[in-house]
Amino acid sequence: MRLPARFYPLLALIYGMPGFGMPLPAHATTWQVSSLTVQPAATAPLPFTTALAQAWQLDPNRTTLTTNRKGAEARARAAGSWFAGGPSLNGSYFDDHAIGSNEGYTTYQGEVSVPLWLPGQGSATKAVAQAEANTAEKRAGMAHMALAVNLLGATSAALLAQKRLATTHAYYTSTAQICADVTRATTAGETTQADLQQATATQEAALADNTAAREEAQTTAATLEALLGSPAIPDIENFSATESALNTLSSLPTLESNDPRLQAAKTESAAAQAALKLARRSFMPNPEIGVGAIHEKQYGSPWDNRVGISFTMPLPSSVHNAPLLSAAKDRVAAADQQEILTHRMIKQEAAQIRAQLIAATQNLKATKIAATNLLNRATLLERSWKLRETPFDDVARARQMAYTARLAQDKAEIAWHTAIVRALIASQTLPGLSTLHASTAPTQAPTLAIPAALDSLETQTPAP
After folding, report:
1. Cα–Cα distance, 381 to 388 (Å, whole number)
2. What is the pLDDT of residue 450?
3. Helices 48-58 and 60-78, interaxial angle, to 10°?
4. How far apart are CA 79 and CA 67, in angstroms?
């Protein structure tokens, strides 16, 4: 396997942990991994903004909402017609041949009619279609934002899984070497059987952790590939401006005005009001006007051909009006309710994201301090054990605690970067978020490369 270069500092602490590179007594060799070779990443990391554009091109919601918008625009153009519908043809034929007098009486009758707009109904129909087209466009922005949140969640899960895989792999490799050294020491009579059992248990626990991490990495990678169409992992670790991210959440009116969810709710309210106006204009079925002709063959009749006009007008009725008005008023009420709830959701979400970002920043600092202190403690216990002043199980527990602290620091670091990007998404300041029709070519995924020799003992995490 090959890890991207950003995981090199991650392994530095693991290899520098007590027992990972410290010399053992004379019978032992070294606990540092030497069988792995450095293989730098073949390609540059995939920027998150590029990955978002790539995922948007593959998102089925984009096609659906584009179709909805085009359909609404077509309805708006059709509403500019002179008539409320297409023409209707009506024809009839009568004679007295089969039954009756059989005197040769024959009548042919035909009519063409068209429905008429009621007063203001045509412009109201066009207004509804235009409002629905605007709603579909704003919903596309809302879907784009939702996709960014989903992509961020999948990216953070995949990055954390890769970090955990690298950490558990290095820890397992080191515990395997430790177990081999303790086995030789036990055979030579320099340590007890209990120490060997402790080393063996530590190795098996590390193997279980590595297996679980490998499964998690494969699962998260599959989820991410479903969004991107490629196994690339977007890079969010270059987002490190905590104060700038917090400043984007400082103005609630600005957040609300830029949020596509509220824009979509407002356009839906406008569409509902337009639909209510249309329902009031459609207070009765559309009247029809037409032109008809009659051709007759009758004995001695002077009226062989006749032409005339026809007019049909159904009268208003509550049976027709009440359902239309009721449905339109229900739509207005639902739209108003959704707009109010969206206002509340944005306000609550802004406070929640801000709190998460502050907590993630503080948590990152705390976990870095904890990992450093536990590493130093494990180093001191390691030296004490070599002087036969400390039992081996204390050293093993200290090493396990340092390893656990390293995992907690990795989680805190990814959570910090994720919180920053989430704040940028909420404030619509993430580059490319509002570009709904961006296009990008598929980018090759960076492969995994596990380094062998590392000098640094701490990750180069951007200072919060």
Report:
1. 10
2. 29
3. 60
4. 18
* pLDDT < 50 regions, the chain: 1-42, 435-464
Domain span at residue 46 reads 5-74+125-284+329-426
413 found inside a domain:
yes
Q: Please indicate, yes or no, if residue 151 is contained in any of the structural domains.
A: yes
Q: What's the rounded Cα separation, in Å, for the pair 114 and 311?
A: 10
User: Quick check: is 101 in a domain?
Assistant: no
Residue 299 has a pLDDT of 66
The CA-to-CA distance between both ends of the chain, in Å, stands at 31
pLDDT tens column, 168-217? 898 888 788 778 878 887 888 777 888 888 888 888 999 999 999 999 99
Give the separation between CA 334 and CA 340, rounded to whole angstroms: 10
Instruction: Quote the pTM value.
Output: 0.75
Residue 150 to residues 56, 344, 414, 434: CA-CA distances in angstroms?
11, 21, 15, 16
Q: What pLDDT, on the 0 to 100 scale, is given for residue 398?
A: 86
272 neighbors 328 (Cβ within 8 angstroms): yes
Supply φ then ψ for residue 47, to 5 degrees. Answer: -60, 145
Total domains in the chain come to 1
DSSP 8-state secondary structure symbol assigned to residue 330: H
The burial class, CB within 10 Å (0-12 / 13-18 / 19+), for 271 is buried
Give the H/E segment covering residue 297: strand 288-297
Q: How far is CA 174 from CA 18, 89, 191, 235, 257, in A?
A: 10, 88, 19, 29, 54
Q: Strand locations in 217-287, DSSP E?
A: 234-235
Give me the pLDDT at residue 303, please.
66
Q: Which residues pair with 235 in a beta bridge?
A: 47
Beta bridge partners of 88: 113
The tokens for 83 are 């008539």
Q: Is residue 365 one of the residues assigned to a domain?
A: yes
Task: Find, among 277, 272, 268, the residue nearest to 122 by Cα.
Answer: 277
Instruction: Quote the pLDDT of residue 434.
Output: 64
Confidence (pLDDT) at 40: 36
CA–CA gap between residue 395 and residue 20 (Å, rounded) = 12
CATH code of the domain covering residue 346: 1.20.1600.10
